[in-house]
Amino acid sequence: MTAPPDTETALEVSDLCVDIHTPDGTLRAVDAVSFTASRGETLALLGESGCGKSMTARAVAGLLDPVAEAAGTVRLAGVDLLAADERTRRAKAGPEIAIVFQDALTALNPVYPVGTQLAEPFRIHRGLSRRAARQAAVELMERVGIPEPQVRADNYPHQFSGGMRQRLLIAMAVALQPRVLIADEPTTALDVTVQAQIMQLLRDLRSEHRMALVLITHDLPLVAEEADRVAVMYAGSVVETGPVDEVFADPRHPYSKGLLDSVPDGGPRDEPLRSIPGVPPELHAIPTGCVFHDRCSLARDRCRAERPPLAELGSGTRRTACFYPDEVPNA
Amino acid sequence: MSTPDMTTTEHTPASPAPTAAAPRRRGSPRLTRLLLADRVATAAAIVLLLAALCALLGPLLLGEVAQRQDLALARRPPFSLDLGLFGLLGTDALGRSVLARLVVASATTFSVALPTVLLSMLIGSTIGMWAGYHRGLRETVAMRVADVIMSFPSLLLAVVVLYVFDPSVATIVLVLTITRIPVYLRTARAEAAQLRSRGFVDAARTFGTAGGAIIRRHVLPITLPTLLTVATLDFCYITLAESSLSFLGIGIQPPDVSWGLMVSEGRTYLRTAWWLSFFPGLAIVVTTVAATVLSAWVRLAGDPAQRWRLTAPRSRRPSMASTAVIDQEARP
Predict the structure, then answer these.
(1) What would the pLDDT profile of B215-266 be if each residue is shown by its tens digit?
(2) Are the CB atoms for A306 and A287 separated by under 8 Å?
(3) Of B19, B217, B304, the CB nearest to A138
(4) Domains, chain A, with CATH or none
(5) ipTM metric
(6) Other Cβ atoms closer than 10 A to A109
(7) Which residues of chain B have a CB within 8 Å of the CB of A109?
(8) pTM for the full model?
(9) Angle at which helices A162-174 and A114-125 pack, to 10 degrees?
(10) Cβ contact (<8 Å) for B8 and A101?
C-alpha cells in the first residue's frame, strides 16, 4: 500500500458465472460475481475453501476445464476475454494477465532447467532467440531475488526450496509485465517468514509495473495487511465489497461479520471463540433467496424468498448483499 | 511490448555481459560419461551397436556365405570348428551356415521391426497426446478408432492385406504399424490426460502457449520415457509377429531371411536340430533385453530428479524392471 491506487480500471469482471457439469447435473460454482481491479491496487478475494474464489481466478485466467463453463464478461483492456476467440485470448495471456499458483512445485515442469522455463514467455510473445530469452530469464531471476541466477538457471525445479520456487513462479508470471496479476493463495504453502518475503516481492512488483494485483486468499490478517479493497465471497457469490479498512472495521454483511468475529483477537482467555453456526452449503444445495439465510441470525421471510442484490451502501465505495445492512453491527 | 529490454536492468547493478559466455554444463559428454559409469547399460549399448553393425554390413560381407548350400553338410550340430568359423552355430537343413544367416537376417529383421516401431510410436503417440490433451470429442473419436483396431484380430488383418497386396517389407511394415498404433495411442493419451491438469501446463497456458507447443514442450518430454519402454518391448512382439506372418507364407519371402523366419523354419526340426530355432530366438531375446536395459537407463538419465541414482551403486537402485512390468501390463 505504498502508492495510492490509480483510478484506471485494469480488470472488470461482471456477472461471472461458472457452471460445472457433473453426472448429477450442473452445479453453479460461481454465481454472478462482479468486481473490478484498478492498476496499482491490490484487491483481495476473501473466502473459505470451496466458496468459488479459485474457480473465479481460473475462469478469469481462461483455465477452466472442459467440464466447467464460464458465462458473463471478463473485460481486460477493452476486450472481453470470455467472448474472444482462442488466438486473441492467447495473445492477452502473459502481456495483459498472468496468474501465480499456490503449489509451486507442480507448476514447474520437472524435466526442464528453470532458466529454460522462464525463457518460454519471452520466446512465445517476443520471439526472442534462445540466448536472448535465457538472458532475460536470468535477469528476471535476479529481480525476484534468487541468488546466483546465472548458475541457478541451469538447475531443475526439485533443486529449489519452496520459497525459491514461489519466487520462480512469480518471475514467470511477471515476465511480460502484465497489467493484471492474479495470485491464487501464493503463500499458503510457505512458512511465515518466507510468506512475508513473497508478499513484499509481490508488493514491490505491483508498484513497479503498476499492476492490478488480485490476491485470492482465506487469510484474514494477510488481507488486512496487503489489500486495498476486499471482496468477501460466500457460496459462489460476492457478499460484500469495499475498502479493507472500512469492511474490517465495520462489516455490513452478516457473513463478513461472522468471519471477522471468529478471529481470536486477544480478548479474555476464558471466552469461547465465536463461530458461525452451521456449515457452508454444498454446491448442489445452495439455498434460494439469500445464500446465507440458513446460518444468519437476522434472516427473515424476505431473505428466504428473494436474493439480495449487491447494493451500494451510503458512501458509494462499499457494497453489500444484505437487505438489512444497518442491523448487522448489532447482530 | 516489443522491446526486449527488461525494466529489471535498472535493478541489476552487476553487468549482465559475461552471461552469454557462461558455460552450459549440459549435452553429450556428460551423458556419455554417465553411460560408461554404468556397466550393464554400457554392455547393452555395445550389444545394440553390434546388432546394428551386423544389420548394416552383414548382407554385404556375408551375403554369399549365407546362400551357399551343401546338402552333404546339412544339420551339422553347433560348437564345432570342423567347418570353420561359419560352422560354429551349426548348419541348417540345406547345409547353410546358421551364423552367416543370422548376421544377414538381422538386416531384414531390423528393416521390418525398426520402421514399424518408430512409425507406430510416432503416429500413435502424436494422436494420443493430441487426443489426451484436448479431451472432448477428439479424444472420443481417437479412442474408439483405437478400440476398433484393437478388437480386430491383427493377424487376420495382416492376412487379408498381405493376400491382396504383394508381401514385401513395406507392406509388412504397414500392416504391423496399423495394428501397433493403438498401444502407443492409449499410453500417450493416458499420460497426456493426466499431465494436462498439472500446474506447469496451466502455467504455460496462462502466458499464452498454444496447444501444440504445450504438447511438444510439456507433455512429450514427460511421456517419452514411458513410450520408449513400451517401444522396446514392442520390438520383440513385432519380430515375432513378423515370424508368424513368415510362417503363414505371407511374411518375408525366401531367399530373404529374418530371425523370425529362421525360428519358424527351424520348428520342423525342433527334435533333431534344436539350434535352427534356438539361435535366432536367442538373437531376438538378447536384442530385446539390451534395448530394454538401455531404455530403462535412458528413462533414468532423462529424468533430472532421478539422474543422481545412476551415480549410486547399482545394488541400491530401485528396480528398473518394475516400471517396465507396469508398462507391459498396460498393454493389451
Answers:
(1) 888 899 889 888 988 888 888 788 878 877 877 777 777 778 888 888 888 8
(2) no
(3) B19
(4) 1-96+184-331 (3.40.50.300), 109-177 (no CATH)
(5) 0.70
(6) 25
(7) 200, 217-218, 221-222
(8) 0.72
(9) 10
(10) no
